[in-house]
Amino acid sequence: MIMKYFSSETVANAYKNFQGTVTNKSWGVLAIMSQLDSMIVPGRTYTINCCSLSTYIEKLFCLGSKKSYIDNGKEWYVKFSTQWSDFFDKQGQTIPNIFDIIVWAYRSTPFPDNITNEQLIAKFSEDFHLSISDINNTFYKEGKAINYSNSLEPDSIILNKISGKLGTTLSKNITAEGRSVTASPGELSRGPFIQPLYAALETADYILVSQTNFDELYPLGHIPNNPSNNGMSFEQKIFFGTPGSGKSWTIKETYEKDETKVVRTTFHPDTDYAQFVGCYKPKTYGDGDEKKISYEFTPQAFTEAYVKAWSDLENPYYLIIEEINRGNCAQIFGDLFQLLDRNKDGYSEYPIKADHDLREYLELHLPEDNEGIKDGKLCLPPNLSIIASMNTSDQSLFPMDSAFKRRWSWEYVPIDYNNKVSALFKINIDGVPEDWHEFLKTVNEKIKKVTSSEDKQMGNFFIKQSVDEKEFCDKVMFYLWSEVGKDNYQTSDAIFKYYAGAEKEPKEFSFNELYNLKQRTDILKGFIRYIKESEA
Q: Is residue 366 within 8 Å of residue 373, measured between CB atoms?
């Protein structure tokens, strides 16, 4: 595989661009984020290895000879507040552009030749433990021209280009010799990146940095009788991506090895708390004149998973929520929202009082004295993971608030144009097979240009197999019309165009015209040709 690096010109431009937007404190926080072991959870104490952090900062902000740090086992401790995502906005003169940060942070990293900007953001999200939603809310994502080089250009070239752009002082971060002005960048207690974080009071609204363990000084009450999580590692993750990118397949392959330990549900616009947790429903007993009706609490997906997990703490259980953003999450979760905050052992940090009906049901169905309903309170156990999927094309149905988003880790499922299975799919038009992947790449580029977004693009498994004309119209063309075409019909951005025969100028058509069987074949052939040629 051909690998490439950011060009020295692109790196120098990135450095120039983030002057005044990404401060030393901002870089200090980013460096800390790179050392975390999970996505950021407000209130959790993270332990940071000093040597690892120092080495990373030295690599990040030293273009001269780098200092070597000895791992003496020292640790620092970090807590993020519930307002931490506002930190970057408060530091610089303007909001930073994420691509300037990415280019500088990965200036020595090789990338595949076909890497996209969205994949760069996905890597940054994973490495710096920031969810995509937090990235969207914190930084500008305005696309920038990113140039690459076939080889890694030395720091001296970057240094010369920075000097040429900014003068001999090279701003407050780097000297003409490639060193930090204040001290060696990685010297935590007096260097310019970490020291200001624990020395400045105003940063305490967003992040606490200390050489003393917060939890030892200010211990929080944990769930009694649950000192151990039995080695369980929970997840609260949302897999997101375009329709057909393989989110459900990824979830199934990753978590559904044992169906007895999985509870599934799908959210929709009418889903409410009762359908997610449970409620009283009528049940009929007996026959004929002896028939009687009684009302019993009927558990739904959340309660079923909750009971299973608390009844068997030795094994992992999974609550799978498909299409989570198609429902009103605030309404569906209600006060269960508080349970999503987990402590370091995997239990809910803030147990909540169960309502009377749910409490009665749990006391009946959980073992006696079970911690899952102790003192009438609910608390998620560490062996219960909650996994969800989300289509980016549906994200406007019920927008999630930032507080809800922060309680999840996020994983982007990209469109895989190299997938060997979907690569075999064909679009059969009048007996002539068209390559699905070739069409998909070009139409997705068209969608991106027309909508200025990748949210409405289609995934490689948008179709599950080769399709004929009718299936292509009913599924693919209908989606393109409803999500993109109808909004741009008879405008300069119209996507529903086709070449009629040998004509050189495309004609516009509507979705309804595809169901005139006499002309459908010609329209589809001309449409595929138009998409290919307009994106050539």
A: yes
Helix/strand number for the chain, H first, E second: 20, 19
What's CA 392's distance to the chain center, in Å?
11
Q: Apex CA 448: angle with CA 443 and CA 449, to 5°?
A: 100
CA 156 to centroid of chain Cα atoms: 36
Q: How many CB atoms lie within 10 A of CB 193?
A: 29
Between the CA of residue 294 and those of 274, 284, 411, what are the distances in Å? 18, 6, 45
pLDDT tens sequence for the chain (536 residues):
689 999 999 998 888 888 777 888 888 888 899 999 888 877 788 898 888 888 888 888 777 666 676 677 788 888 888 788 778 777 666 778 899 999 999 999 999 988 888 899 889 988 998 887 778 878 887 777 899 999 998 888 888 887 654 433 334 445 444 444 344 666 676 666 776 676 555 677 788 888 777 666 655 544 444 445 566 678 999 999 999 999 999 999 999 989 999 999 999 999 999 999 999 888 777 777 777 788 889 999 999 999 999 999 999 999 999 999 999 998 999 989 999 999 988 999 999 999 999 999 999 999 888 899 999 999 999 999 999 999 887 655 677 888 888 899 999 999 999 999 999 999 999 989 999 999 999 999 999 999 888 889 999 999 999 999 999 999 999 999 998 888 888 888 899 999 988 788 899 999 999 999 889 999 999 999 999 888 65
Tally the C-alpha atoms within 13 A of residue 390's C-alpha that lie toward its C-beta. 27
The set of residues, in sequence order, having a beta carbon less than 8 Å from that of 257 and lying 6+ positions away, is: none
Q: What is the DSSP string of 414-470?
A: ---TT-TTGGG-EEEETTEEEEHHHHHHHHHHHHHHHHTSSTT---TTSSSS-B-HH
CA-wise closest residue to 239 among 132, 346, 130:
132
First to last CA, the chain: 24
- Kindly tell me the sign of the dihedral angle through the C-alpha atoms of 88, 89, 90, 93: positive
Does this model's pTM top 0.85? My answer is no
Distance of alpha carbon 514 from alpha carbon 486, whole angstroms = 14
3-state SS, 494-514, equals CCCEECCCCCCCCEECCHHHH
Dihedral sign from CA coordinates of 26, 32, 36, 40:
negative
Tokens at 385, concatenated: 């993971």
> What are the angstrom distances between the C-alpha of 199 and each of 182, 205, 280?
15, 13, 56
399 to 82, 269, 277, 367, 386: CA distances (angstroms)? 19, 12, 21, 38, 19
Which residues are registered as beta bridge partners of 112? 3
Angle at CA of residue 321, ends 320 and 324, nearest 5°: 155
What tokens appear for 449 in the block?
A: 């240009």
* Whole-number Å distance between alpha carbons of 70 and 338: 42
Asked if 209 and 76 count as a contact pair (C-beta separation under 8 A), the reply is: yes
